[in-house]
Design a protein that fits this description.
Helix content is 42%, strand content 14%. The protein is an alpha/beta fold and 436 residues long. The longest helix has 32 residues, at 198-229. The relative contact order is 0.09.
C-alpha cells in the first residue's frame, strides 16, 4: 500500500519507518529542508534504539523516501498520516494549527478518495475540525480517521511492530477496511485492532496517558508518605503491584514524569474538561504533585547542606527524561539544574544521549563530561537523575575515590540500601530510609 506521512518528528519517523518495514511504500514529507536532506542521505535525526536498522534497510530497498513536496508525497497515497506537533498553547489547550494547516493544504491537492489519519495526539472533536478544514478546499470524497499512537520512547519500534492494541476511530466503512488491512501484519499474534468512533478514539489516547501519569504521581505521593512514617516505597510497590487489578508497571517512585507526552496530554485533557465545564480534580492534583516532585531532590540536597549551596559542585548522572532516549522535553533534570544553579551551585553532567540537546538549551550554564566517572571529579555529591542502565552497577570504590565526599542523592532508587551502607555512602533516595 502507498502511504504518506506528514511530519517527521518522533512519531512520524517511527510510524513511517515501521510501516515501510512490512512492505508498504512510504513517503515522509516535512517542511524542514535541512532535515529532509539529512534523512535522504541516510542520517537519523533522532535517537531511538532499533530504528536505525529499519530506517537504513527500507531506504536501501526504496520503500522509505523523504521529500518537502506535499503534492508529491500524497499523490498516489491511499492513506495520509498527520504526525504533526500539537504543543500546548498558553492556556494549556493543544495547538491544532499545524494539523489544520496541513489538512487545508491536502484539501487543495487531493483528486480522489483518501483516508486522512490523525496520528498526532489531539483533543476530542479534532476529526470534525480536520473534516471541516478539508471541505474548505475540496469536494472530493475522503475519510478522517483517528489513530492515536501508544509508543514508548526507548522501545517505540517494538511497540509499533508488536502493539498490545491498535485503536482506530472511524465511522467510514471504506476507511475501516483499509486500516484493518494496513495493521493486519502487526497483530497476527491476536492482539486486537479496536474500532470505535472518532471521538472515543481521540479520548482514549488522553485517558491512557493521563491514567499512567496518575499512577506515577500516586506512587510519588506514597513515597513521600513512606519517608514520613518510616516505610519503604519499594516494599509497598511490590505489595500492591502483585494485585492484578493494579499491575506492576508505572509504580516506581522518582522525581516526576517528563517527556513529550505525559505533561502536555494531562494538561490538554484537563483543559478540555474545563472547556466542557467539568472540573477534572484528579488531573489537576496529578499536575500539582508532578511539579513539586521534579525538585524534591533539590530540597533533600538543601536540607543536607543546611540550606547553603553556594560553592557546592555536583556531579549529575542523567539528563534525558527517561533512559534510551535523547528527549529532554520537560525532563526533571532541567528543573533541578535551574534550582541548583540559582542557589549558587555548579554542575558537571553526563548522559549517554541527552547532552547535545541540553547543550543547545542551557549552553555553558553547566559543565559536561564525556564519561560518567570524569563527571565526579571534585564533586561534593553525585546526583542520579535518569535511570540509564550504565549507572546501575558502577565501581562504588572508584566513585568514592573521585568524589570529595561519599554522598549520593538518588532520584531513581537505583541502588540497594544495604550495599550503600556497606560501601560507606551517605545515600538519600526517594521513599526509602536514608543511609549514613
Amino acid at each position: 500500500m502507498k502511504i504518506a506521512v506528514v511530519g517527521t518528528g518522533y512519531v512520524g519517523l517511527v510510524t513511517g519507518t515501521c510501516l515501510a518495514e512490512t512492505g508498504n511504500e512510504v513517503t515522509c514529507v516535512d517542511i524542514n529542508e535541512e532535515k529532509v536532506k539529512m534523512m535522504q542521505q541516510g542520517q537519523l535525526p533522532i535517537y531511538e534504539p532499533g530504528l536505525d536498522l529499519l530506517f537504513h534497510r527500507n531506504i536501501k530497498q526504496s520503500r522509505l523516501t523523504f521529500t518537502t513536496n506535499l503534492a508529491e508525497a500524497i499523490g498516489d497515497a491511499k492513506i495520509i498520516f498527520l504526525a504533526l506537533p500539537t504543543p500546548p498553547g498558553g492556556d494549556g489547550a493543544a495547538d491544532l494549527s499545524y494539523v489544520l494547516g496541513a489538512a487545508r493544504d491536502i484539501g487543495k491537492i487531493i483528486t480522489e478518495y483518501k483516508v486522512i489519519v490523525t496520528k498526532s495526539t489531539v483533543p476530542v472533536g479534532t476529526a470534525d475540525k480536520v473534516t471541516a478544514a478539508l471541505k474548505e478546499h475540496t469536494t472530493q470524497e475522503f475519510a478522517v480517521v483517528s489513530n492515536p499512537e501508544f509508543l514508548r520512547e526507548g522501545v517505540a519500534v517494538e511497540d509499533f511492530m508488536k502493539p498490545d492494541r491498535v485503536v482506530v476511530g472511524t465511522t467510514d466503512e471504506r476507511a475501516r477496511k483499509l486500516m484493518g488491512e494496513l495493521y493486519g501484519p502487526y497483530v497476527r499474534q491476536g492482539n486486537p485492532v479496536v474500532f470505535m468512533d472518532e471521538r472515543s478514539s481521540e479520548l482514549t489516547k488522553y485517558a491512557a496517558n493521563s491514567f499512567l501519569a496518575t499512577k506515577i504521581s500516586f506512587m510519588n505521593e506514597i513515597a513521600n508518605m513512606c519517608e514520613l512514617v518510616g516505610a519503604d516505597v519499594d516494599m509497598v510497590r511490590r505489595g500492591i503491584g502483585a494485585d492484578e487489578r493494579i499491575g506492576r508497571r508505572f509504580l516506581f517512585a522518582g522525581i516526576g514524569y517528563g517527556g513529550s507526552c505525559f505533561p502536555k496530554d494531562v494538561q490538554a485533557l484537563a483543559k478540555s474538561a474545563e472547556e466542557n465545564k467539568y472540573d477534572f480534580k484528579i488531573l489537576n492534583s496529578v499536575m500539582e504533585v508532578n511539579e513539586l516532585q521534579k525538585t524534591v531532590l533539590v530540597e533533600k540536597i538543601k536540607a543536607y547542606y543546611g540550606g547553603d549551596l553556594k560553592g557546592k559542585h555536583f556531579a549529575m548522572w542523567g539528563l534525558a527524561f527517561k533512559p534510551e532516549t535523547d528527549d529532554i522535553r520537560e525532563a526533571p533534570a532541567l528543573y533541578i539544574i535551574d534550582d541548583l544553579v540559582e542557589a549558587g551551585a555548579t554542575i558537571t553532567a553526563y548522559d549517554p544521549e541527552g547532552m547535545p540537546n541540553v547543550k543547545k538549551l542551557v549552553g555553558d550554564k553547566i559543565g559536561y563530561s564525556e564519561n560518567r566517572y570524569d563527571a565526579l571529579k571534585d564533586a561534593d555529591a553525585l546526583l542520579i537523575v535518569t535511570e540509564w542502565s550504565v549507572f546501575r552497577t558502577p565501581d562504588f570504590d572508584f566513585v568514592k575515590e573521585k568524589l570529595k565526599a561519599p554522598v549520593i542523592f538518588d532520584g531513581r532508587n537505583l541502588y540497594d540500601l544495604d550495599r550503600m551502607q556497606e560501601c560507606g555512602f551517605y545515600y538519600n533516595s526517594i521513599g526509602r530510609k536514608t543511609i549514613g
